Amino acid sequence: MGFNQDNCESVNNATVDIIEIWEKDFKEKVKRKFKITKAKFTIDDALLKGAEIISRRDESFLKARHYLTENNPENNALIKYMTAFIEYDTKLNEKYYPYDIDELNLLYEKNTKFDEKGARKKVYNRFNILSYKNYVIFMVLKLDGQYDADLDDEIFRVTTSDNREYNPLTKIPKQLRAFLPFRIKEYDIKSAFPTFIDIELECNHRHNIYEVIGKKEFAMAFNANSAVGDEKWYRKNVNILKKVYGSNATSVLTMERYQNKGKAFRDFAKLERQCIHEFIELNNIESCVRLHDGIFVVEGTKCNILNIGKVQFVEKKCLPPIKREGVPNLFYHFNDKGQTIITPTSIADYFIQENFQRISTKADRIIIFKNTNNVVEPFNVNTDLLSTLKLGIIECGQQRDKVMSEISIKYDLMIKPALRLIDPKELKLYRDSRSKFGLPFKNGFYLMDKSAQIEVKDYSEIDGFFPKHKIQEHEFKYTDEVGMFERVVQNVSDNDTLAFHSMLGYLAQSYKDSSCCPAIILSDKNADNVNRNGGRGKTLFLKALQHVLPVMIKGGLEFDPKYTHVFADLESEIQLYVVDDTIAGFKFEQIYTQITGSLVCQRKGVKAETIPFDLSPKFVFTTNYLVGHNKENNSTNRRFIEYQFNNHYNQTNTPKKEFECTLFEDWDKNEWNRFYSFIYRCVAVYYKHSIISPVYNKEDDNYNILFNDAVKQEVFDVVMKEVMRKNNEFTVSVFLTEYGKLDHIHTSPKYFTNKNTKLYIDSWFNKQLSINDSMKCWTYRKDKRKWFLKDNMSLNSLLEKFVQHSE
Q1: Distances in Å between the alpha carbon of 110 and those of 85, 125, 126, 269, 417?
Q2: 644 neighbors 523 (Cβ within 8 angstroms)
Q3: Which listed residue, of 12, 76, 578, 624, carries a Cα 20 to 30 Å from 235's Cα?
Q4: Residue pair 553/539 in contact by the 8 Å Cβ criterion
Q5: What is the DSSP letter of 359?
Q6: Which residues are paired to 601 by β-bridges?
Q7: Cis ω on the peptide bond leading into residue 749 (within 30° of 0)?
Q8: Half-sphere exposure of residue 563, counting CA atoms within 13 Å on the CB side?
């Protein structure tokens, strides 16, 4: 049985609900068979009346329909969370997410794109319900052997292009593949394209190619193309492939492939298809679904032949995500008619579950007690209460609107009365004072004064509440023993260990001194702006601070100070704001105001909130790039202090290897005591010395920022050689005139202009002075805006020394 084409008018124009099409088609078949004229004839009526004419193909549709009814896609957490994020720019409350939250955050990252202004771009939602439902039907028909390509390819929009099939399986994310009425598994070609290259060249490099080049770099080089045959670009990519293929690299990236975009892919996609076809035949596979370089089959399918010559197929499991324990219940449910049901009992249970505690303030705010140690999450009754309940709504679109409407209707009837039953308390968040520092542990509040004396206080003695934090999970006992993290600090700081201690102490305590509250930059010593040699230990510092106080970490790419809502999710309990992996050339002066004054948080859709200076967070920036330094820029220099990490830790020598454990994750209570004791000692260093600023020679950093690639360096050297050969004095204009004569240099924009050339020349001379004494003969006259040769040393002699030194 096929589809009635009258029911498929929109197939070519839009994605359709194939279950609805089948239901309509089946109803018409039953009505014709039994000559039914009843106007209101449902699918349930048709299934009851036409039970005897249900075909095997209909049974497959019923199998898919039953599964989708019992496992309503609207209740699928992956679909809900990702649809809310992609289509509504909303992250649903992660504590209700039943699967791995880290994996969810990775999905958020992969589905986040920004335009050139830093605003989020709209992306296609591959988690949409209709695509998933059609995928289930497609897979059931295919793997039940009931798929008729002549009838079904059009409605399922199955196409073949460049020897690859595109079907409903290729259109949904891998995280949804296992949500089917049966278990499936995959057989795919291991290192497909490298294997095909080995076959083509009769070589054997596929086993280590990604270790030598890297998967991404290999793909970019292999697929490099230029319609005009750019020789320079061609050679660059051939040289990359030479690392593995040597002189055969031009046989991999041939000129024909290079000049015809996609030819390399098309060549090997054809081999890919042939291998898959042969694999299916050799293993007598009756039913399967293709996905690029592999196939999916039902879990019980046996494949004994996995190797076809050099081509190796690998079996992979396809399982739904594992549910985590302790996920809380929702305060609502939907009945069989799709109506939202909220009862007084469900609301009461929700408040108990969330440990609400009412407080008394002028703003009429409430907080949530997480334990008895003054730990709270503050929010406003009149506005934040609904917002908090909103976080517990794991729906989007119309379903979300239904729940929100029901909450609004019952707000006065159920929610506020429940809050009135809670005894009020005064809300005040704890902050350190100028002379006292404390941390809230499970066994008490440990307070230290400027004399470094520590005493334990009961929480009833503490003036202020605490936001929930992982530190409250630990019981603390002070020790003088040196722990792993303290040794890490010693290892990364060279001769600046005391300065690093003062920096950690400054960041750990929550008091903010308006006369001295710099932002901290954590960078790499001897960075070159070319090779991003991370792994120095900066991330460990951030993890350490996260175990001490509330920290918010933003990726460098997502932090745009010009974006109105950049601080939309920042709350007053956050004491440290980290911009991790800051982009090259970041203009630190953009956040002068946020560092030294109050911080304005523009929430989306509500009035902006101002966090006063004393409650606003301190700032930390990490970067693998060079950080420039202008000795004359006092505004920047007093607002930022840089701490450079040496290369004690790198890709081969990691803290995990050195200490034979994963720091923080594998620690016992003794190591945690060493860690927190070290934090107290760092604060004591800060109290004694204030914050110590390391002294670095930044001339090399400034130079490397400017001359950040070999071509630019070479061009500059050529121009300077000519300028100094011909002149005993010169200006920026003279340099630019000589630069303009290099017709073979084509850069857009130009390397050197009226605005930046003096900066380059000054930096170049500073660099040369450190390695070439002959350069001392040149000096710059600010009043003349010229560089002069200031003694009688001959130009030829000077130039000869410069050339010899360069060689």
Answers
A1: 11, 12, 12, 26, 43
A2: yes
A3: 624
A4: no
A5: B
A6: 609
A7: yes
A8: 18
Distance between CA atoms of residues 645 and 361, nearest Å? 46
Q: For 314-317, which contacts have Cβ atoms below 8 Å and span 24 or more sequence positions?
A: 314/187, 314/188, 314/189, 314/190, 315/185, 315/186, 315/187, 316/185, 316/186, 316/187, 316/188, 317/185, 317/186
Helix axes 77-88, 129-143, angle to 10 degrees: 140
pLDDT, position 773: 72
CA 549 to chain centre: 23
- Per the model's pLDDT, the better-predicted residue between 741 and 795 turns out to be 741
Torsion of CA 378, 381, 384, 388, to 10 degrees: 80
Residues 6+ apart with CB under 8 A from 291: 169, 170, 186, 188
Paired tokens of 434: 């100028």
DSSP-based three-state secondary structure for 316: strand
Residue 6 confidence class, pLDDT cut points 50, 70, 90? very low
Note whether 270 and 262 are within 8 A (CB). Answer: no
b/e per residue 230-264 (b: at least 16 CB within 10 A): eeeebeebbebbbebbeebbeebbeeebbeeeebb
Q: Which residue has the tokens 């509504």?
A: 88
Closest alpha carbon to 699 in 759, 786, 787: 759
Strand partners, 455: 447
Cβ neighbours of residue 699 under 8 Å, at least 6 residues apart? 763, 766, 767, 770
| 3-class DSSP assignment, residue 40 | coil
| Helix, strand and coil in the chain, % to nearest 5 | 45, 15, 40
Q: With 0-12 CB in 10 A as exposed, 13-18 as middle and 19+ as buried, what is 558?
A: middle
Q: Among the listed ranges 506-515, 537-546, 621-630, which one has the minimum average pLDDT value?
A: 621-630
Whether residue 140 contacts residue 64, with contact meaning beta carbons closer than 8 Å, is answered with yes
Q: Which two tokens stand for residue 583?
A: 């982009």
Distances, alpha carbon 487 to alpha carbons 161, 248, 490, 493, 743, in Å: 58, 49, 5, 10, 55
Name the phi and psi angles at 463, rounded to 5. Answer: -90, 90
In the sheet with 551-555, reading across from the earlier edge strand, the strands are: 551-555, 576-580, 618-622, 519-524, 640-645
What residues have CB less than 8 Å from 433, skipping those under 6 apart? 511
- pLDDT value of residue 602: 87
CB atoms within 10 A of CB 308: 15
What angle separates helix 56-70 from helix 18-34, to the nearest 10 degrees? 130
Rounded-to-integer distance, Cα 315 and Cα 186, Å:
6
Q: Which two tokens stand for residue 511?
A: 């008091």
- Catalogue the long-range contacts made by 244-249 (C-beta closer than 8 Å, 24 or more residues apart): 244/205, 244/208, 244/209, 244/212, 244/213, 245/197, 245/201, 245/203, 245/205, 248/201, 248/203
Burial of 628 (0-12, 13-18, 19+ CB in 10 A): middle
pLDDT at residue 372 greater than cutoff 70:
no
Rounded CA-CA distance 389/334 in Å is 16
Give me the residue label for tokens 């929480």. Answer: 459
- Residue 419's identity, in one-letter code, is L
Contact 295, 192 (CB under 8 A): no
Strands 311-318 and 307-308 come out as antiparallel
Q: Does residue 268 surpass a pLDDT of 80?
A: yes
